[in-house]
Give the backbone structure.
Amino acid sequence: MCGVAGIVSTSPPDPEQVRTMCRLITHRGPDGEGYHTDANAALGMRRLAIIDVVGGGQPVYNEDRTVAAVFNGEIYNFVELREQLIARGHRFATDGDTEVLVHLYEDHGEDLVAHLRGMFAFAIWDMSRRRLLIARDRVGKKPLYYRQSGTSLAFASELKALMADPAVSREVDPVALHHYLTYQYVPAPWSIYRGVRKLSPGHLLVWQDGEVSEKRYWKLDFTPRPVGSEQDAAQQARELLLDATRVRMVSERPLGAFLSGGIDSSAVVAAMARLSDRPVKTFCIGFDDQRFDERSYAATVARRYGTDHHEFVVAGSAALEVLPTVTRHFDEPFADSSAIPSFFVAELSRRHVTVVLNGDGGDESFGGYRRYAYMKKVGRRQAPRRLHGVLNRVGSALAEASTTPRLRRVGRGLRLLGETPQHRYASLMSYFTNESKDALYTDAMHEQLDHLDSYELIGEVFDTSRADEDVNRLMDVDVNTYLPGDLLVKVDITTMAHSLEARSPFLDHHLMEWAAGLPGRWKVDGQVTKALLKKAMAPWLPSELITRPKAGFGVPLADWLRSELRPLAFDLLTDHTARSRGLFRPEVVRGLLQDHDEGRDRSTRLWSLLQFELWHRTCAETSCDIATAPPEPAAQGHCG
């Protein structure tokens, strides 16, 4: 695991700028650094040594040193690839996984990505052709940002590295901000800054003599495929998970697992225990608020498999203290509040291990979200068109004015009856709806957006999906939006902040491709989510864990915004600095704060606005340099 950065140009690039870029991402690779410089390229990397700890430095080269590569990630099938390449006459100088890239490139060009099993973001520089290839893994586990300026192209693992160049504008992209307020993250290919882009998952980009081309090389195919019985599928699910876990347990550094008490992380721990001859180290975060605390379920799994179990309880005061540090690491506004416990569990884990496995991806492949069951229940039923306006007005008013979760759900349900399935799902996934953003924006903000609809990001995937059932279409949507834009960003940033590598067996593309072809009714059976995976895990996990409702990895955000975080929210969102940006109507922001104080839950919207404002002051108006950030206060909580 590493951080990468580089510049290619038709004129000589500045190697010192690349060194500065790499210094800003030292946390991604504290074990070493490496550089390549020539007349048209400067490449750099920071290394977190996991495989071939002694000899696996970068950049790596082919035999005649005409092809160089820097790499972030892990190639799990590198041993097999290495054997195949040696058989074809290639010579290797290291024992690590990175070197397979340059030799695969020699044989297959940009098609090398089809041979890789793993997580990656890499750059390959072909000196003889003055050609740069950058690529990102299939589902977006590893990040990669880039910026084109004239005939130059710069790239980096994190946005802060690209922004090291003082010539780069820090102007906020209003389109990115608009999408962020809808979904609580900035989706690819946008970044929060104008002129800087994220390489999308499953994409590669080629720069050659100042010209750039980009293409998609992989998309998860939800076309139905012939299958046997559910019992056969349950058995195959166990076998595929075991194989995906096995290849991810290869490490020369200490290894463990996140264990939340949910079925996905528990299944991964169960697989690890079957594959290991020593107790698995497991790590869990909890809260004093019992509504959000799942430690008892995690402890049940830990006892069943005799793991070396570690816990940490997060207090609201600790969340307040760590918030600026978390914001500084993310580089962009990011409003998934579970980033806070993710940050703490990564910190806890890094005290004991360098690599962790997690349960990410189980929901998207096996139908784990309750919204899938809700959408299946509602189906494609839609109220007569003449009632759409009435339902929208009445439902919105009820949802906005109610102080109880039940009435909010009723109001939202009425509103959704007047929408198409794809628009309905986008509305379910939104935090600021189209109507609430219209009320929030100033006239100047409206003029820049010209009626842009964030819901189209979801509608496009839904409409073009090859799935023949809406449940699978929704999973297709999430694999292309929520998973890479939210979940994988959260895991990468919070773990890399602590120089910790995270691996996700459920995101193995072999397992994902197999699961995508399964019938949706096997995944969501009535109101039972993840039905097939629960059948598959019945021999491995306690029944009380399998049958309990999905809880998620939430925090008591609404309570925090009425207690520990309330002064910060009022101060940052209503002061002159925030008002002077001219983006949001001050009276609407103050109304959200007042509503929340009076019992109407506005926590997710306030958190989105607070994260944007905190990000703007922490990163846009200054450097996101982690090395020069104020020291992080000690977390308030307790270990177990």
